[in-house]
Amino acid sequence: MVFLKKMKFKTFFFIFLFLVFNNLPYKVFCQNLYFAGFSFLGNANQDFRYPVAAKLFDENPTIFKDPLDAALLNLKRKDLNLIKDLGTIESGEAVTIAFALTDESIERFSTIDGVTNAYKIYAQILVFDFNEKKVITNYPVLVQKETLTNGVPSAIEDFNILKSMYIDTSSKSSIFKFWTEKLETVKLLNAGSIHLQIRDVKLDNAVTNQIPEKLSKNDLLKVRSAQKLEYHISSKQNVPILPYTLGQIGNFKKGLIARFSDSLEYDLTLPEADFVMDLLIREFKNVTVDRGKFEVKIYAAFITLNVLEPLTNTSYVNSKFDYKNELVFPKSENMQILNEWDVYQRTQDALFSNLARQISKRDDAVLPSITGTANIKSQLAKFEGIINKCK
Fold it and tell me: CB of 281 within 8 A of CB of 221?
């Protein structure tokens, strides 16, 4: 009888707690974040990385506010409370989230049916603390739109397509829509204190000698390679990665700092990375193979990746990787490659995508196609362990 009473009491107590916690306002469990809106990640002289957005912004500094706000109306997670009113840093209301734009790019390649144009916009979910002037966490975001045209589009056509990827939130390739969808799933609350970052990107001598001026200027190939690797590892392993480059944020001209009524310009600093990745980009190669009625062009991208702990210089991954991209054309079509560097970059992108998946999959059927390192499964298992610490 006594046991029965205890059971009834425990059951009642559990039901009481269940009812209490399920009837509390959801904001009790929310984290308040000031929403800083749209920002450019980089100094004012970085406009070459996002020329369409920079031009649109110069013409109308509020042009991105409405589409970004419209996309956020579809945010369903209940553990975040985005505050759009002005706050004051002195009051302790300094934890802020922003859409941070990092890059635009266009890649083209020929197909039997015409010209495929790949338009890409890179951004970040950036959370930072103005009290410490330090990044707390961030996640890379990428949206891509492909079009098929008879010839190469004009500069105006390119501009309008990228513009629509910013302005039209009903589009499947809206960057603000993708940013919001990523925001639904990433871990922002109690972000980990262990950080991963691409520390260094180098070009070997062969790449330095073969790279076109457009990609060598402003270290564009280095920056874009880092961004792609960050994106693929972050998205496929669901882990934040400190950005490879971080310039000045908060320039009033670019709008971010305007969220705070008492703020001046700030340089955001990065926390020290606990684990780093050093990337060596090795010579890109291509070869043409005759297969009867078909001509096969094989493009290959090569890298060396080193993952280590900088404090002790302990190496966890030190391996070469490569990926081969085969393009098959009927000889009767007399196909021409418009820009081989677009193909090289697309091949490198595929390499990073495969590598990022294999960190956790370690598939015996795939690994031999991207690396010849004998103990690569053991190395990647260690890399996965590092990633789990950073989540």
Answer: yes
pTM: 0.83
**Residue range 129-149: mean pLDDT, rounded:** 87
Q: How many CA atoms lie less than 13 Å away from 284 in the CB half-sphere?
A: 23
Partners of 260 in the β-ladder = 87
Question: Which three-class secondary structure string do you get for the chain?
Answer: CHHHHHHHHHHHHHHHHHHHHHCCCHHHHCEEEEEEEEEECCCHHHHHHCHHHHHHHHHCCCCCHHHHHHHHCCCCCCCEEEECCCECHHHCCCEEEEEEEEEEEEEEEEECCEEEEEEEEEEEEEEEECCCCEEEEEEEEEEEEEEEECCCCCHHHHHHHHHHHHHCCCCCCCHHHHHHHHHCCCCCCCCCCCCEEEEEEEECHHHHHHCCHHHHHHHHHHHHHHHHHHHHHHHHHCCCCECCCCCCECCHHHCHHHHECCCCCECCECCCCCEEEEEEEEEEEEEEEEECCEEEEEEEEEEEEEEEECCCCEEEEEEEEEEEEEEEEEHHHCCCCCCHHHHHHHHHHHHHHHHHHHHHHCCCCCHHHHCCCCCHHHHHHHHHHHHHHHC
Kindly report, residue by residue over 75-115, the tens digit of the pLDDT.
999 888 888 864 554 555 577 888 989 899 999 987 778 89
Assign residue 188 a region: left if phi > 0, alpha if psi is -120 to 50, beta otherwise?
alpha
Could you give the C-alpha distances from 52 to 38, 48, 113, 166, 167, in angstroms and in order? Answer: 15, 9, 28, 10, 12
Q: Are 337 and 109 in contact (CB under 8 A)?
A: yes
> 31-44: b or e for each residue (b if 16 or more CB lie within 10 Å)?
eebbbbbbbbbbee
CA atoms within 13 A on the CB side of 240: 28
C-alpha torsion angle, residues 227, 233, 236, 238 (rounded to 10)? -100
Q: Tokens at residue 19, please?
A: 């009812």
**Residues 192-209, mean pLDDT to the nearest whole number:** 93
* Residues 6 or more apart in contact with residue 285 via CB below 8 angstroms: 299, 300, 302
